[in-house]
Design a protein that fits this description.
The structure holds 3 protein chains of 3 kinds.
Chain A: H1 8-33, E1 40-41, E2 60-65, E3 68-76, E4 79-81, E5 84-88, E6 91-99, E7 104-108, E8 114-117, E9 123-129, E10 133-138, E11 151-157
Parallel strand pairs in A: 3-6, 5-11
Antiparallel strand pairs in A: 1-9, 2-3, 3-4, 6-9, 7-8, 7-10, 10-11
Chain B: H1 9-36
Chain C: H1 7-28, H2 30-38, H3 54-86, H4 93-115, H5 133-162, H6 171-186, H7 188-202, H8 211-222, H9 224-239, H10 241-244, H11 252-265, H12 282-316, H13 334-356, H14 369-399, H15 406-434, H16 453-482, H17 512-536
Helix pairs in contact in C: 1-3, 1-4, 2-3, 2-16, 3-4, 3-5, 3-6, 4-5, 5-6, 5-7, 6-9, 6-11, 7-8, 8-17, 9-14, 11-12, 11-17, 13-14, 13-15, 14-15, 14-16, 15-16
The chains are: A alpha+beta, B mainly alpha, C mainly alpha.
């Protein structure tokens, strides 16, 4: 850099910082390549009646095959529909989440399911539930006075 | 005109501690991500 | 130059800071109310019928502390720093006075629906939740007022540069004006959100709005606003604190370079607040991740330069050894200790920031209490505690009185840290380990777990200590302003001397046009395509909802 004198210690620090940050980015890139992805989106929905575009299916838990499920979830003021999902251990579940009204959040404890639910949008992400137990999910975006009662659970039953 | 001043050794010592903390704490959260499983 | 030459500018600054502290005073009370509610102590009944809900309180806490206190304090402080650094009066004082009136009018306008529970939408006001139109218009006026004041500062600096050709702009004035310039560009996002989407919608001129577009425009501004908050603290850390520590600014050119990098890199990064959003491609989220890593550089650079500057002071004061020089720094000066502790805290705030910015790693912590822990380290401590430290010389300067009392101020500063440690650590852990949601009235949540309680109790203890520290702060400020002890000698703005004279700093570090061009280009490259796609698919069909 013309005319810029940098103390060698300072230069060393900047290089070390750069290496650390590059290492982080590499680790992130590798994990993203191996399926640790951000919630994607299915498609844009028409929210106005009679509009074109796909409409969101009725909330449901649909089995696609042995141990494979799709959950169509609607977040609304102030509940998740459905708010209880029962599946056998070892299942892979893909969540498709939309909002009926305002912004909501959706986070399932002990998983990487963490997304925003918006009206007119569908958020899509997947988790594999190996360990039996209850996995609660919460709304984590302010949606009005009943925000704190908006929750549910995924009940993972042991295969026996 | 370059003024002679002592090398910032204390600064580097502090920053080594800081850099170590960055790496340790970042890796902790990264490992939690990996432990909680893939999303695809 | 006679002392009363800056009387108008100092009155202007005093008004800004007075309003800022008033806002902070009101906003503060909701902090302890929130943490206590989380452990089952609901004191909101005591505020009825004035405050109708936890969420109205939370809105006031966020708006008053994060938007009002900050904007007023910063605009006032940077007016003071610019004129004193240049030793030049405001070029067109009426411009800055007009700006203050606009900001004050905006504040009053916003306060009405906020206090009447017609704007319980939190400080992010995401649609489709809809507040009264006055709320949006008022906030817009506050932003516009700050723009006007920014222009007042540009005219002043431009006039100085015209009569000082070839000289380097004094660092403090340079940093101050760059902060305002960055803010003006950054706030275009929120201005567009308000003027194009939210105001027409809340006035009923348009039936519906597009929540994703609104959110994206909000976060266009929402990330750089944290640098609008941080850079004035950096102006003090680089430009004043070394003097207070008996040292010198280690590198004038690198200090300026850090600020230029903030201008260029603060804005094209906002999508890192939307990693969990649908409707935005992972590619653009990844681009913003890279750029966000870029904006960590000027802060890492700052860590070195500022610590090295303080080390010069510590050693000049007799410090020896690798770490022992730290003890020789002027810890008995509360202005110093506040800012030094704010700096140390930022180490953890910055680490948290890098974690949050790391693309998929954010999934572990997004919208949990971790985020609350994070911004109480960065905004509430790094920025606010630095501002508090600054007022420990600025309020005596503006009032002509002696600080009441240095001992109380020292206690206030340490009390803040003693409160912040448990508060922030517990929130980080609650978010990381248990995924506890933020923005939530947890005390009455049916899913509240027993295993969360120890950490929630720690958080409550911390929160109460923080509140006590701030109350002490207000006592000190009022005690100074209305105290009878006139200062023996007027407190002056500390100005650090650089190790190497700034005249040796290369001219490209004092030239605006190329940096502005790169700034705008980078914004177009990083935000152009994703915004264009959102606009192409815009769907103005979400009606306003009042869910409170």
């Amino acid at each position: 850099m013309n005319g810029l004198r940098v103390d060698p210690y300072e230069r060393g620090w900047m290089i070390a910082s750069g290496i650390i940050l590059a290492f982080f980015l590499l680790a992130v890139g590798v994990s993203a390549y191996h399926g640790f992805t951000l919630p994607g989106h299915d498609e844009r929905l028409e929210t106005s009646p009679g509009g074109g575009g796909a409409r969101f299916p009725e909330p449901a838990v649909v089995q696609r095959g042995p141990g494979r499920y799709d959950v169509y979830m609607r977040a609304q003021i102030w509940a998740f529909v459905p708010n209880e999902i029962k599946i056998p251990a070892g299942s892979t579940v893909t969540f498709h989440v939309t909002s009926a009204d305002v912004l909501h959040g959706f986070l399932i404890e002990r998983t990487n399911i963490n997304l925003m639910a918006l009206p007119g949008q569908v958020s899509k992400t997947t988790a594999r539930f190996d360990t039996p137990g209850e996995y609660r999910f919460f709304c984590h975006e302010y949606c009005g006075l009943g925000h704190q009662i908006m929750w549910g659970k995924v009940i993972v039953e042991s295969r026996s | 005109m370059e003024e002679v001043h002592p090398k910032p050794k204390g600064t580097i010592a502090i920053l080594i501690v800081f850099a170590s903390l960055i790496v340790i704490l970042w890796c902790c959260v990264y490992l939690v991500l990996l432990f909680r499983g893939a999303t695809q | 130059m006679p002392e009363n030459n800056f009387r108008l500018e100092e009155r202007l600054t005093a008004w800004h800071i007075g309003i800022a502290l008033g806002a902070l005073f009101v906003g503060t009370w909701f902090g302890p109310l929130q943490v206590l509610e989380h452990v089952g102590i609901d004191l909101y009944g005591k505020l009825a019928p004035g405050i109708k809900s936890y969420y109205q309180g939370l809105t006031l806490h966020g708006v008053l502390n994060a938007l009002v206190y900050t904007t007023f304090f910063i605009t006032g402080f940077l007016t003071f720093t610019t004129v004193h650094s240049l030793k030049t009066r405001l070029r067109f004082p009426w411009v800055n006075i007009l700006g203050l009136w606009l900001m004050a009018a905006g504040l009053l306008m916003t306060a009405v629906p906020l206090l009447l529970d017609n704007a319980t939408v939190l400080y992010t006001f995401y649609p489709p939740l809809q507040a009264s139109a006055l709320f949006y218009i008022g906030l817009t006026l506050v932003v516009v007022g700050s723009w006007v004041e920014g222009f007042g500062l540009y005219f002043t600096v431009a006039a100085w540069r015209a009569t000082h050709q070839g000289e380097r702009t004094p660092f403090i004035a340079f940093g101050s004006v760059l902060t305002m310039a960055m803010w003006q560009i950054a706030s275009l996002g929120i201005a567009a959100e308000m003027l194009v989407l939210l105001i027409p919608w809340s006035l009923g001129w348009v039936r519906g709005t597009d929540p994703l577009l609104a959110r994206t425009l909000f976060w266009f501004t929402g990330h750089p606003i944290v640098y609008f908050w941080l850079l004035p603290a950096y102006v003090s850390w680089y430009g004043m604190l070394p003097k207070q520590a008996g040292g010198k600014l280690f590198s004038d050119p690198l200090a300026r370079l850090a600020f230029w990098l903030f201008l260029v890199l603060s804005i094209p990064v906002g999508l890192h607040h939307q990693f969990a959003d649908p409707g935005i491609s992972p590619t653009w989220k990844a681009v913003h991740t890279l750029l966000t890593y870029g904006v960590t550089f000027p802060s890492l650079l700052t860590a070195f330069t500022v610590i090295a500057s303080l080390e010069l002071g510590g050693r000049a004061r007799g410090g020896k050894g690798l770490f022992a020089w730290v003890c020789k720094l002027p810890w008995q000066d509360p202005s110093f200790s506040a800012q030094a502790l704010a700096m140390a805290t930022f180490a953890f705030g910055g680490i948290g920031g890098i974690i949050n910015a790391s693309y998929n790693v954010d999934l572990v912590v997004h919208n949990t209490l971790w985020i609350v822990g994070h911004f109480h380290l960065t905004l509430a401590t790094t920025v606010v505690l630095s501002f508090i430290g600054i007022t420990y010389w600025l309020v005596p300067k503006l009032s002509g009185k002696e600080l009441w009392s240095a001992r109380a101020a020292r206690i206030q500063v340490w009390l803040w840290i003693v409160g912040m440690l448990p508060f922030s650590a517990s929130h980080h852990l609650l978010g990381l380990r248990y995924g506890v949601p933020r923005r939530t009235m947890l005390g009455t949540a049916p899913y509240l777990s027993l295993e969360w309680n120890p950490l929630l109790l720690l958080a409550a203890l911390g929160g109460v200590l923080l509140w006590a520290s701030l109350l002490l702060y207000f006592v000190i400020v009022l005690g100074t302003m209305f105290g009878s002890r006139k200062a023996a000698q007027t407190s002056e703005m500390p100005v650090a001397e650089a190790l190497v004279d700034p005249s040796e700093t290369p001219a490209w570090l004092d030239t605006w046009t190329p940096w502005l061009i790169v700034t705008i280009l980078l914004i177009l490259l990083s935000y152009g395509p994703p915004l264009a796609e959102l606009v192409r698919n815009v769907d103005l069909s979400s009606p306003g909802l009042r869910a409170w």
